[in-house]
Amino acid sequence: MALLEAAGVELAGRDAVVVGRSNIVGKPMALMLLERHATVTICTSHTRSLADHTRRADILVVAAGKPGLIRADMVKPGAAVVDVGIHRLADGRLVGDVDFEGVRERAGHISPVPGGVGPMTVTMLLANTVQAAERAQSSKGWAHV
Predict the structure, then answer these.
(1) Which of 6, 53, 61, 106 has the fewest CB neighbours in a 10 Å radius?
(2) 29: Cα separation from own chain's centroid
(3) Which pTM was predicted?
(4) 59 - beta bridge partners?
(5) Are the C-beta atoms of residues 62 and 43 closer than 8 Å to each other?
(6) Poorest-pLDDT segment among 53-57, 91-95, 97-101, 116-120
């Protein structure tokens, strides 16, 4: 969500498709998008006519666990694409669930792999840790330093 916010992506009233139904990424992401008034569709890598769903998406979040699953022809022009997947190929390259090189020409915003969701995850964990420490400190009546 922080990546979408930082890019200035409008969520309310937009069509969002989440490809992946995991308890770690897919389901929580779908709920967070719903809370921001997006219309959400959840798909899996086994969804029939997956491209029909993804081509409608103003916001496409992909966490399906299949390298290169989403190709350029499956993305709506101008869409915001968040690629949560990361895979090491036999040749040693790291790639995501989205064909970055193909999709980058079509998308309005796209997160790279590596360098997108992974570093943002670490950043958010650190920010949440600091916030939790500040809350714990203030609940004990300690002054902020």
Answers:
(1) 6
(2) 7
(3) 0.89
(4) 16, 80
(5) no
(6) 116-120
The pair of structure tokens assigned to 117 is 């969701």
17: which strand partners? 41, 60
CA distance 128 to 67: 30
pLDDT tens digits, residue range 59-92? 999 999 999 999 999 999 999 999 999 999 999 9
pLDDT above 70 (res 143) = no
Please report the beta strands in the chain, taking only residues with DSSP state E, as ranges in sequence order.
15-19, 39-43, 59-62, 80-83, 87-88, 94-95, 109-110
93: number of CA atoms within 13 Å, CB side?
8
**Size (the chain), residues:** 145
**Residue 64: how many other CB atoms lie within 10 Å:** 26
d(CA 26, CA 62): 8
CB 62 within 8 A of CB 85: yes
